[in-house]
Amino acid sequence: MPHDANEIINEGRMLQHCVGNAGYIRKMAEGLCTILFLRDNRDLAAPLITMEECDGSIVQCYGFRDKYNSSPEIREFIKDYASRRNLKINAVIYR
């Protein structure tokens, strides 16, 4: 989970997707959503997937340039995470 707006901006820049824009930062600051960063424990600096959790659901799940996750291991991790947190999955988490 990002600690501040700069981490969200950097995530968007590194993965070249829109999470770093002001709309997501505002939504997170207002408690309307949670932005989550998926990383490999062996390289925490390298972003893999960015997720948006909103209203009890995972609503977005994107990698580099809005690509869908192609890793079965990440898919299973997301499914397990959602189950443990009692979240619905309303996003493509694997393709």
Please, could you describe this protein's structure?
This protein has 95 residues and is an alpha+beta fold. It has one domain (5-89). The chain is built from three helices and four strands. It has a four-stranded mixed beta sheet with strand order 1-2-3-4, sandwiched between helices. A hairpin with a 2-residue loop joins strand 1 and strand 2 (43-54). It is globular and about 30 Å long.
How many structural domains?
1
Largest sheet: number of strands, sense, barrel closure: 4 strands, mixed
Instruction: Give the topology string: H per helix, E per strand.
Output: HHEEEHE
The averaged pLDDT comes out at 94
Q: How many β-strand runs?
A: 4
| Lateral arrangement of strands in the main beta sheet | 1-2-3-4
- Using the alpha-carbon principal axes, give the shape: globular
Task: Extract low-pLDDT stretches.
Answer: none
Strand share of the residues? 25-35%
Q: What is the percent of helical residues? A: 25-40%
The radius of gyration is 12 Å
Discrete helix count: 3
Class based on secondary structure composition and strand pairing: alpha+beta
Termini separation comes to: 24 Å
List the helices and strands and how they pair.
Layout: H1 5-15, H2 22-29, E1 34-40, E2 43-54, E3 57-62, H3 72-84, E4 88-89
Task: Write a brief caption for the model.
It is built from 3 helices and 4 strands; from the N terminus they run ααβββαβ.
Task: Fill in the keyword field for this structure.
4 strands, alpha+beta, 3 helices, 95 residues
